[in-house]
Structure formats: structure tokens, C-alpha cells
């Protein structure tokens, strides 16, 4: 594989052939001259000059394997001055992979008294620099003991530790006796950073055997020993098309410093370490990326403390893929105690609260990843909600609640919805909106449980795949959802009334009903639950255009859901229920477009269920404006926009003699037209106004009117 | 005392012989129930142990010994140690560590017997060797898994008599070795009231209870900085009298002794003890503190009382 790439690379090399041959010749000549004359005193100066020239040449072109071997031979003969030897070591810049025999040559010269220890250390640095391009690392393992032997040498030790750090695999440490001897390094040489780095690696492999405390090491202990040299080496490799991607010369693993300082405002989560791993074990600590996780997910030894799942994404993947009962139990026991300790067994201090919050946020992250609530968390929530003040840890609690596992509605109501309802009465409008948003999220998550299966008489989830403990949801799942929608309906009505139609609450309610309508449209849900008339009417008469437009959009979605399966609707819903829904469409159209507000004589129209007396009084108040008083151009939610729309039209029309001062009606526009003002019919204006609204984002009202009124769709095509 | 030393020697011999025979065999030696007596234990709660095997006490003992040594000496003991280790002692040295079941008659052993860890420890410096204990009390009922198939063993309560540093190291080892979580076990006021009941009832059965040390109940007053505690000292005779009188007055009412004491003080002194937090109780037999402390005193009642008290501790964790 490597040879093939080398051939290819050589073909693609950018250096012209003639020039290359010339360079090779020069390099070979100079190496040969230095080798032959290293010990000749008379030509010492010449040798030095040759070395300078060689350094220059090699720094640009690097060396072939044979040239590397030749330079190494010169070094080991040791006839040159130390400074020259160091120069030559620095030009050991391989163009391709480094064969093992060169590394072995260096290692076998360790302890060579003829070779200065500083030079030996420099050669070890060279091994570290070229480590990534050594041809066969497995051969080097045989020198593990040899390398250890020279650990006694202070000058060499840091680099030997670095090489061992790069070389060590689990199986190298299995011989306990040697292993213990290695561990004893620290006691013999003291806490040197490179020794601690190596020990940390050993401890990660065998935490049960390496029981000593290793102080935390800031940053990586093993950094590139010579950045400039490494860059030059990389440059040469790249020049000869052996792109090594600028890898730092360190272990690319997930090993991290072990010791963590205990933080008072954080729960201490166990580290994912595997005790009692065997020679053949694959542990989580060795999994470096998602690819290696995928390839060995079924062989990985789980860490000794599974609560580490809270902070370890790789472990989260494993647990999701294989949620065994025992695995879930191990996590659950830990979580249960930790939660109980923080909430019930400790004084409610600021520190405890901070720790609880930190744990809850971790649970949220875990749950969001797993898309399912661990049963133990749901059990905790049952207890916690009963005494919750609604404020503490609000963000986390609402997020966890939005992942509640479906149960029969009555049970959920008793455990969660009723206590939340009690809080709802006491807390702010913003909290009420947050609760409804939480319900919307819950609803959305429930839909995902049963994706698209609602239409297949499969209303009970027996064993959801990927469910922790294969929790079965007893009872009619559809009924739970139906009961829940009714509950959301009720909460929405109370919220609107108690907050005086707060905008944030309205927004939350419409989002909820948009999600519910979506279920009916896209998930074959056939038990349509329409929003209460109270919600529809309040939105219609709201002073916010957003409310009116969105409720129109929601009604349109419901209408489409009904239209989608008319036969089923007849069988599942009584006629009066459908007529009741139709009354929304009729009443809104009558007001907005037909100028027949509160009409009760049209088929299905109910006049917003107002008493005749009230309608009469409204009529008296509005006088002659009565018919248009609740129309698109007059309703408080759109009146200002309509006025601004008229003004824009007038601005864009040249030679206007008179401007419209009254709201746009059939008569006012006719009058102004004859008086030399804006020339537009009322119908054309309304179509134009609807287009303007559409562009402003009021899609709901635009689509609703176009879909509901045949006359309108004939007037203009949708923009 | 000499008997105790003899026992320890015997036990040591027994363990060694077992080690020589086969590491996988269960140790037959047991710790005696007297390890509970006259020691102030700190109480801890513990979640179920995962893959804890009773036949591996020797192995666990070695592992824990190594772990503590590693943590305390900053080094791994080598097989070829040559006596230089004193140079590395930073905090102290484990001389001997021993794990075994505890012989406790009357203990309902459905889920096994309590397990004890005895650590003979030599602190750095001239201080003498000391013996410390960790005692694991098994659960009364098994949870979630059928006992025969369960990979879990539950010891919900741990009693620890050891310096905090040593205790923390041992706790860390148990947590990592058996995937459990250990935290302090604080007793609620209601728990202590039950203990009052327990202590009084047992004391009444004793013939010479008249001569026993009076009951001392310590109440903590929440939210008042001027007064932190109120201590009530009542003789067992008075408690008995109170108990009997109350019983005569209303046979139908089944309130406990603690409630009767509350009522009496309210009637006489208008002090509403039920609004205060009962934080400590003590008498001649035991001292139990809400912060999670237990001391059982030597006495005639002890063997019977010990099991009952320990059972209560386990029950309260449920």
C-alpha cells in the first residue's frame, strides 16, 4: 500500500528529474566525503564546509533511506566534533517512511560511551519526530525492555518516556511483575512530569493496579520536543508528497488527567475508567472516535462506574444501543441516591441547590441525547413535583417533564398535571406560557414514540424499541394523547383568562395547537380534538394580528385534517362536533370578508355564540359601520396595517388629488376614487392587502381566506 | 482484652491457611458482634453492589489493602520490597486488612449477614497501631431483581469507625470496585422518635431499668439564633410512669412514647416539642444522632438491642 503510494508520489513529484539527479549526486558526494574524512585532521575545515553545504541541501530536499543510514553511520563512528554531529542529526529528514532498522540502530547505540549523551538524547528526539512515519511499530515493541533499561539516564529519561508513551498498548503492561517495577519509577526518580505522564497512561489502562495518586497534569505532558525541527520534517515529507497532516507527536487518545478537583457547586460524576480490564479488553478509554466506537461497540468492556454516562458521550451511545436491564439498574441506583441526597437528605443550602441544578442539567443533556427519560428520573419527578415551587431549577424540570413517558392519562394527571395545575394558578404569565411550551414539547415527543402508527389500530405501545427496561405502556395510548389534548385545551383557556390574553401565553398556546394540528395532518391521527371556542374567539378579537392570523392558520390545518378523511370523520365524530368546527370557519369568514358579522342565519354560523341582545347592542354602538366593523380592514388587529397599506398605495400613485382619511370600505374607496384619489376597487384592495399581509408573515389569515372563500380564490391567484 | 487478641490471632491463622489452600474459597473466620460496642460509628447509605461475591473476600481484602497503601504511601508495594518503604510513608500504613462476615445472632439473614472490614493501621510517627472498621448491613428485602439471579447485593447501611481520610479511600474503592454510591446517612427527627420507642421498650423489659442512666433527648430549634438546642433529661422510671398513665387514660389511642413526652411537656410547660427537631437521643444503651452517628454501649441489653437497632437503621433507608 505504502509502496504503491510512494510510486504514485514519485511520479507526481514536483522537482524536475535532471535537477533531482543533480541534488542526489551532490548529497551523496558530500556524505561520502564527510564519512571518509571525518577523522582526517588536515581537512577538518573542508569537512566542516561540506557539512554546512550538506545541511543546506538536505534542509531543502531531505534524505533517502540509504542516505539516512549513511549519515547515522557517520554519527556512530563518533569522529566528528559534537557540534557537527548535532548538525548532522538535525538533517535526518526522511523523505518517506523510516524503516525499522534505522530506529533499531539508534536504540542499539543508547549507552554508547563514544556517543555524547546529549547526542543520544537528540537522536531520541529524532525518533519522536519521525515516530508517525516509522514503517512497523509492532517491531519496536520488542525494544520495550531495552528502552526501560536506559530510564536510569537522566538526560535520556524524558525522551524515553515520550517514546514509551507513544508505544505502549494495553498488552505491554500485562506482566504484573514488570509492570509493578515500572510503576515504581516514580518512587525512584521522583515526580518528574514525563514520568507522571507515562504513569497516567498506565493508570488509564489498569486503574486497579496503579492505585497511587497522580497529581493532575496541566495540558499534555508530552509536547513536540522540537517544533522547528518537526516543521522542517513535515515540509520535506510534504515536498515528497508524504503528507502526514501535521500530526502532533503525541498520543491521539481520550486519556485525560485523572484527578479532578472537587467543586462544591458541581456533583462529582465518576470518571469512565475500566477496572480489571484484561489483555484482550477493549475499554471505553481507548475509543477515540465514533468510527472506532461503531466498529467495536459490542466488544467494549463497560466502565466500572456507569454513572460516568452522564458525562461521556461514547458511553451514552453504548447504553442507547444496548439498554440492558442491569446497565440501566446500575445507572439508576446511582442517580436515585444522588438525587435523593441533594433534594431530601441535605440542608437546602445554596451550594446544594447549585449541585442539584448541575446534576439536573446533566440529566437533561442525557435525556435529550437518548430521547427518552430513564424510569428512575420519572419516579424522582413524581415525588419532586408534589413539593416543587415552580421556580427552582425551572429550566431543567420543564425540560425533563417534556420527556415524560406516556402512561394512562389519569395516572399522569394525578402524578404531574394536577400539581402543575395548582402551581399554574399561582405563578406568572411567563410561567404559564413556559408550562404550555413544555406540554407542546411533551406532545411532540409522544408523537415520536408511535410515528405514523396511529392509523393502524395499534394504539397500545407494547414494547417500544430502544426503551429502557422495555417499559410497556399499558392502556390505550391514543386515549392518553386525547386526554392530554383536552387538558392542554383547558389549561390554555384558564391561562388566557387569567393573564388577560398575554401575548407570550397566546404564542405558547398557538404553538401547542399548531403541533396538535400537525399530528392530525401528518401522523394519521383520527381523533381530532379541536381547540375550544373560547381560544378561537379570544384570538379572533385579540388586538394582535399574530393571534388572529395564527388561529386562522390552525383552523385551516384542522379543516384540512377533516377533509383528508371525510368517511372516518363521520364515523368517529358526531355531526354536531363537525358543525361546531364549521361554525368557526363561517363566523370568521362572515366577519372578515363577507361583512355579515355575528350572522346566525347562514348554514353552520353561530355568530361567535353571542346572545342576540348583545349583538343588538353592538349594532347600536357601531351604527352604519356595523357591517364592516369586524372586517379585515377594521378589526383592531389589522386596522393600522390597512391604513398604512392605503398610504403606501397613495404614495406610489402619481397625481393623487385627495387622500383617504377614513378606513377602507367599499363606499369610502368609491368616494375617494371619484374625488381624484386612489383608483382601486374595494375587492382589489382587499386582495392587495392580503398579499401585503402574506409578505409581512401573516400567512395564516391569507391561506385561510383563500382556502375558505371560493369567490376570493377566483379573484386573484396566490402570489 | 487478651481474649480478643487470641481471637485475632486465630482469625489470622485461619485466613492464612485458607489463602494457601485456595484463593477462591470462602473465609470461615468471622468478626464478632462486639465490634459494634463502644465505638462511635458514622453512618452511610450505599446503593447496591454490582458483582460482589462472598467467595472473594480474600481477593477484595488484598485489593483494598493495595489501594489504601497506594493512596497513602504514594507507591505500589513491590513484591521485592526491601524495607525502604518507610521513606515513602506519607500518612500511615495498613498493617493488616481483613474482610469477613460478622457473627450476629438474631440477625435475619435472608439477604446474608453483615460484613465487616477490619483495618489494622499504623499512623506515621510514634502513634500506636489502631484498628478501624467498616461494617456493611444487608438489606431486609431485595429490590428489582430476583435474589437468585441478581448481579446485585444490597448493603444499604454502612457503619464506619475510621479516620476520615482512611474512610474516604475505602469508600472510593468500594464505589469504583462495585459500581455503588456511598453518601452520609442522616437520620430524620421521625427516625429518632422511633429509636426512642425502641430504646424505651427494650429498657422496660430489663429488670433493673430503674437504675439505668436517664434518657437524654436533644432538640434543635430551627431559625432561632439565640437558642440552638434544648436538652431534656428524663429518667426511664418517669417515662414508664408517663407511658402507663397515658395508657390508662385512653386505651384507644395508640400514640408512641415520643408523642406522649411531647404531649406531657405541652400540657405542663406549653413547649411544643413536636415543632422542634429531635437531633440526638441517648441513654445507657446507645447514642443516636441525627447527623448520622451511632454508639452502642456495652451492657446487659446490648446483644439483643444491637440487632434491633441495626435492623431499624436498615428499615429507615427504604
TrEMBL record, chain A:
Residues annotated as signal peptide: none
Subcellular locations according to the entry: Chromosome, Centromere; Nucleus
UniProt KW rRNA-binding keyword: no
Keywords: Centromere, Chromosome, Nucleus
Source domain of life: Eukaryota
GO biological-process terms attached to the record: CENP-A containing chromatin assembly; mitotic sister chromatid segregation
GO CC annotation: inner kinetochore; nucleus
Alphabetized Pfam families for the sequence: CENP-I (PF07778)
Primary localization: nucleus
Entry annotated with the keyword Nucleus: yes
Family classification: Belongs to the CENP-I/CTF3 family.
Official protein name in the record: Mis6-domain-containing protein
UniProtKB/TrEMBL annotation, chain B:
UniProt xrefs under InterPro entries: CENP-L
Localization annotation: Chromosome, Centromere; Nucleus
Pfam families: CENP-L (PF13092)
Region (Disordered): 1-23
Keywords: Centromere, Chromosome, Nucleus
GO terms under cellular component: chromosome, centromeric region; nucleus
PANTHER family to which the protein is assigned, alphabetical: CENTROMERE PROTEIN L (PTHR31740:SF2)
Family the UniProt entry places it in: Belongs to the CENP-L/IML3 family.
Protein name: Centromere protein L
Organism, as annotated: Rhizophagus irregularis
Amino acid at each position: 500500500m505504502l509502496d504503491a503510494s510512494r510510486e504514485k508520489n514519485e511520479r507526481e513529484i514536483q522537482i524536475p528529474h535532471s535537477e533531482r539527479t543533480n541534488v542526489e549526486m551532490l548529497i551523496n558526494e558530500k556524505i561520502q566525503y564527510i564519512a571518509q574524512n571525518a577523522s582526517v585532521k588536515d581537512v577538518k575545515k573542508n569537512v566542516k564546509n561540506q557539512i554546512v553545504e550538506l545541511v543546506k541541501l538536505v534542509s531543502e530536499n531531505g534524505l533517502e533511506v540509504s542516505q539516512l543510514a549513511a549519515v547515522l553511520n557517520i554519527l556512530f563512528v563518533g569522529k566528528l566534533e559534537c557540534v557537527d554531529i548535532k548538525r548532522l542529526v538535525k538533517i535526518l529528514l526522511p523523505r518517506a517512511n523510516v524503516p525499522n532498522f534505522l530506529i533499531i540502530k539508534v536504540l542499539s547505540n543508547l549507552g554508547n560511551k563514544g556517543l555524547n549523551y546529549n547526542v543520544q538524547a537528540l537522536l531520541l528526539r529524532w525518533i519522536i519526530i519521525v515516530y508517525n512515519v516509522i514503517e512497523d511499530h509492532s517491531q519496536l515493541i520488542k525494544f520495550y525492555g531495552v528502552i526501560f533499561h536506559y530510564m536510569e539516564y537522566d538526560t535520556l529519561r524524558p525522551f524515553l518516556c515520550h517514546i514509551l508513551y507513544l508505544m505502549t498498548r494495553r498488552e505491554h503492561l500485562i506482566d504484573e511483575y514488570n509492570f509493578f517495577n515500572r510503576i515504581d519509577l516514580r518512587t525512584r526518580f521522583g515526580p518528574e512530569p514525563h514520568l507522571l505522564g507515562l504513569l497516567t497512561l498506565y493508570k488509564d489502562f489498569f486503574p486497579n493496579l496503579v492505585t497511587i495518586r497522580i497529581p493532575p497534569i496541566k495540558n499534555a505532558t508530552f509536547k513536540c520536543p522540537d517544533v522547528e525541527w518537526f516543521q522542517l520534517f513535515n515540509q520535506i515529507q510534504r515536498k515528497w508528497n508524504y503528507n502526514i497532516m501535521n500530526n502532533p507527536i503525541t498520543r491521539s487518545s481520550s486519556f485525560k488527567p485523572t484527578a479532578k478537583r472537587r467543586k462544591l457547586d458541581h456533583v462529582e460524576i465518576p470518571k469512565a475508567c475500566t477496572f480489571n480490564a484484561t489483555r484482550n479488553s477493549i475499554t471505553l478509554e481507548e475509543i477515540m472516535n465514533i468510527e472506532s466506537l461503531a466498529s467495536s461497540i459490542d466488544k467494549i468492556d463497560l466502565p466500572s462506574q456507569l454513572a460516568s454516562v452522564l458525562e461521556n458521550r461514547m458511553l451514552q451511545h453504548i447504553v442507547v444501543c444496548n439498554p440492558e436491564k442491569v446497565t440501566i439498574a446500575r445507572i439508576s441506583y446511582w442517580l436515585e441516591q444522588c438525587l435523593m441526597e441533594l433534594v431530601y437528605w441535605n440542608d437546602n443550602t445554596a451550594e446544594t441547590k447549585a449541585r442539584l441544578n448541575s446534576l439536573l442539567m446533566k440529566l437533561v443533556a442525557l435525556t435529550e441525547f437518548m430521547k427518552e427519560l430513564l424510569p428512575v428520573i420519572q419516579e424522582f419527578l413524581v415525588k419532586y413535583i408534589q413539593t416543587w415551587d415552580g421556580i427552582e431549577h425551572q429550566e431543567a424540570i420543564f425540560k425533563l417533564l417534556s420527556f415524560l413517558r406516556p402512561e394512562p392519562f389519569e395516572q399522569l394527571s394525578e402524578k404531574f398535571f394536577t400539581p402543575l395545575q395548582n402551581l399554574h394558578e399561582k405563578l406568572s404569565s411567563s410561567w404559564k406560557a413556559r408550562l404550555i411550551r413544555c406540554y407542546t414539547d411533551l406532545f411532540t415527543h409522544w408523537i415520536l414514540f408511535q410515528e405514523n402508527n396511529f392509523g393502524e389500530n395499534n394504539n397500545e405501545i407494547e414494547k417500544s424499541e430502544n426503551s429502557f427496561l422495555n417499559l410497556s405502556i399499558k392502556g390505550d395510548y391514543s386515549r392518553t394523547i386525547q386526554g392530554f389534548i383536552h387538558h392542554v385545551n383547558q389549561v390554555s383557556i384558564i391561562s388566557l383568562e387569567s393573564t388577560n390574553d398575554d401575548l407570550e401565553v397566546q404564542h405558547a398556546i398557538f404553538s401547542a395547537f399548531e403541533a396538535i394540528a400537525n399530528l392530525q395532518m401528518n401522523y394519521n391521527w383520527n381523533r381530532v380534538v379541536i381547540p375550544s371556542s373560547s381560544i378561537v374567539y379570544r384570538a379572533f378579537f385579540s388586538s394582535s394580528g399574530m393571534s388572529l392570523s395564527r388561529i386562522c392558520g390552525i383552523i385551516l390545518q384542522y379543516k384540512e385534517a377533516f377533509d383528508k378523511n371525510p368517511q372516518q370523520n363521520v364515523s368517529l365524530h358526531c355531526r354536531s362536533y363537525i358543525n361546531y368546527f364549521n361554525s368557526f370557519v363561517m363566523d370568521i369568514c362572515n366577519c372578515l370578508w363577507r361583512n355579515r358579522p355575528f350572522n346566525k342565519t347562514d348554514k353552520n354560523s353561530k355568530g361567535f355564540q353571542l346572545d342576540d341582545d348583545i349583538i343588538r347592542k353592538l349594532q347600536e354602538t357601531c351604527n352604519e359601520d356595523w357591517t364592516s366593523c369586524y372586517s379585515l380592514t377594521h378589526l383592531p388587529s389589522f386596522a393600522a396595517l390597512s391604513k398604512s397599506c392605503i398610504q403606501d398605495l397613495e404614495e406610489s400613485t402619481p397625481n393623487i388629488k385627495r387622500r383617504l382619511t377614513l378606513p377602507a370600505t367599499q363606499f369610502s374607496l368609491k368616494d375617494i376614487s371619484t374625488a381624484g384619489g386612489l383608483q382601486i376597487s374595494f375587492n382589489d384592495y382587499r386582495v392587495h392587502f392580503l398579499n401585503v399581509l402574506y409578505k409581512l408573515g401573516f400567512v395564516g389569515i391569507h391561506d385561510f381566506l383563500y382556502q375558505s372563500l371560493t369567490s376570493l380564490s377566483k379573484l386573484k391567484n396566490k402570489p | 482484652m487478651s481474649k480478643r487478641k487470641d481471637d485475632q490471632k486465630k482469625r489470622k491463622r485461619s485466613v492464612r491457611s485458607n489463602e494457601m489452600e485456595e484463593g477462591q474459597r470462602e473465609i470461615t473466620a468471622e468478626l464478632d458482634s462486639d465490634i459494634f460496642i463502644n465505638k462511635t460509628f458514622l453512618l452511610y447509605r450505599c446503593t447496591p453492589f454490582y458483582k460482589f461475591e462472598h467467595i472473594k473476600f480474600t481477593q477484595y481484602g488484598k485489593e483494598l489493602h493495595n489501594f489504601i497503601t497506594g493512596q497513602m504511601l504514594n507507591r505500589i508495594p513491590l513484591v521485592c520490597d526491601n524495607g525502604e518503604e518507610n521513606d515513602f510513608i506519607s500518612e500511615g500504613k495498613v498493617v493488616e486488612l481483613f474482610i469477613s462476615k460478622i457473627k450476629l445472632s438474631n440477625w435475619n439473614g435472608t439477604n446474608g449477614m453483615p460484613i465487616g472490614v477490619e483495618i489494622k493501621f499504623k499512623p506515621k510517627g510514634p502513634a500506636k497501631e489502631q484498628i478501624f472498621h467498616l461494617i456493611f448491613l444487608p438489606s431486609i428485602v431485595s429490590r428489582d431483581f430476583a435474589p437468585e439471579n441478581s448481579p446485585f447485593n444490597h448493603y444499604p447501611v454502612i457503619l464506619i469507625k475510621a479516620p476520615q481520610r482512611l474512610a474516604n479511600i475505602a469508600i472510593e474503592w468500594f464505589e469504583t470496585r462495585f459500581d455503588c454510591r456511598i453518601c452520609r446517612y442522616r437520620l430524620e427527627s421521625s427516625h429518632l422518635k422511633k429509636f426512642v420507642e425502641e430504646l424505651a421498650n427494650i429498657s422496660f423489659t430489663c429488670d433493673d431499668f430503674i437504675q439505668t442512666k436517664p434518657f437524654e433527648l436533644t432538640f434543635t430549634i430551627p431559625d432561632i439564633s439565640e437558642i440552638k438546642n434544648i436538652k431534656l433529661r428524663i429518667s426511664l422510671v418517669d417515662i414508664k410512669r408517663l407511658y402507663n398513665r397515658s395508657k390508662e387514660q385512653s386505651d384507644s389511642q395508640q400514640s408512641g412514647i415520643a408523642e406522649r413526652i411531647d404531649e406531657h411537656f405541652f400540657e405542663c410547660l406549653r413547649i411544643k416539642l413536636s415543632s422542634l427537631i429531635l437531633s440526638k437521643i441517648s441513654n445507657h444503651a446507645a447514642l443516636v444522632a441525627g447527623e448520622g452517628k451511632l454508639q452502642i454501649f456495652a451492657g446487659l441489653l446490648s446483644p439483643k438491642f444491637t440487632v434491633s437497632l441495626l435492623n431499624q437503621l436498615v428499615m429507615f433507608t427504604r
